[in-house]
């Protein structure tokens, strides 16, 4: 989360005008004073908040949270996966003020063998280490720009559709940037170079993960039921047993004012 802490400056401005008039028998002083006090120049607050509604195999999962809820949160949190398991998240992004560009960064931080089990060795898995796992190869990711109903529709843009193993790997890898809204991209609309306006409300990102072969079909706009979501794990063998994948997902909101040509690809993480 990026914040600019509020800082207030006070400027006092005095505006005055005086007139001196002389009469033959009466002398008087006329005066007039206009004061503008306690003028304020204050730095805006710039606060990106997230909420998440998570399900696993169609049931409510334990990694959901609300906007403003304190603590470190996980979009994905499953350590007992079986082939064919799948999950879905609806991520709400809320900006408290002004206009912003919006970017995301996805980084595979571990694709570990997590210890080599005898059953894995019997299946032909002979390697061990933090980057020797096979789980990422079988894990599919699908992200789209949603309208808030958690249903992928034909008019909603796909942001990411790939195997997790295609993310950069290795210690301190650069990860993969996702262009959500910048001067050249707009995943949530058709108008380019149009920043996200806080006054128009939250944005939503849909996510689906699948341990297996993922098939997703889009529903028609305005549909109340999702299209097909099918996760087929029949081709996965024992080599993934006990493997561990860790993924870090960061979102960045950057001021749009005085920043017309902003690019998510050039933003310094």
Description:
With 269 residues, the protein is mainly beta. It has 2 domains: 35 residues, no CATH class; 219 residues, no CATH class. 2% of the residues lie in helices and 43% in strands. A 6-stranded antiparallel sheet has the order 4-3-5-11-7-8, with no helix packed on it. The chain is globular and about 105 Å long. The N terminus is likely disordered.
Largest sheet descriptor: 6 strands, antiparallel
Outline the low-pLDDT stretches: 1-27
Count of DSSP E strands?
Answer: 14
Number of helices: 1
Percent of residues in helices: under 10%
Q: H/E element string?
A: EEEEEEHEEEEEEEE
Q: Give the neighbour order of strands across the main sheet.
A: 4-3-5-11-7-8
How widely separated are the two ends?
12 Å
* Strand content range: 35-45%
Class from secondary-structure proportions: mainly beta
C-alpha geometry: globular
What's the gyration radius in Å?
A: 28 Å
Q: How many domain regions? A: 2
């Amino acid at each position: 989360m990026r914040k600019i802490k509020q800082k207030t400056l006070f400027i006092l401005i005095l505006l005055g005008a005086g007139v001196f008039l002389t009469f033959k028998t009466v002398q008087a002083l006329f005066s007039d004073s206009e004061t503008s006090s306690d003028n304020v120049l204050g730095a805006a607050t710039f606060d990106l908040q997230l909420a998440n509604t998570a399900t696993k195999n169609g049931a409510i999962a334990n990694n959901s949270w609300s906007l403003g809820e304190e603590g470190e949160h996980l979009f994905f949190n499953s350590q007992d996966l079986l082939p064919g398991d799948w999950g879905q998240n609806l991520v709400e992004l809320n900006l408290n003020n002004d206009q912003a560009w919006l970017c995301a960064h996805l980084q595979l931080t571990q694709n570990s063998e997590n210890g080599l089990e005898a059953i894995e060795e019997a299946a032909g898995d002979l390697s061990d280490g933090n980057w020797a796992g096979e789980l990422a190869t079988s894990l599919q990711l699908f992200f789209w720009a949603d309208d808030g109903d958690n249903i992928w529709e034909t008019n909603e843009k796909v942001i990411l559709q790939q195997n997790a193993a295609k993310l950069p790997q290795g210690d301190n890898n650069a990860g993969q940037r996702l262009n959500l809204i910048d001067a050249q991209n707009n995943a949530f609309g058709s108008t380019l170079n149009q920043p996200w306006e806080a006054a128009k409300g939250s944005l939503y990102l849909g996510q689906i993960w699948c341990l297996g072969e993922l098939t997703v079909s889009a529903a028609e706009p305005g549909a109340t039921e999702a299209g097909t979501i099918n996760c087929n794990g029949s081709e996965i063998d024992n080599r993934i047993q006990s493997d561990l994948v860790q993924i870090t997902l960061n979102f960045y909101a950057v001021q749009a004012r005085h920043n017309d040509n902003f690019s998510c690809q050039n933003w310094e993480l």
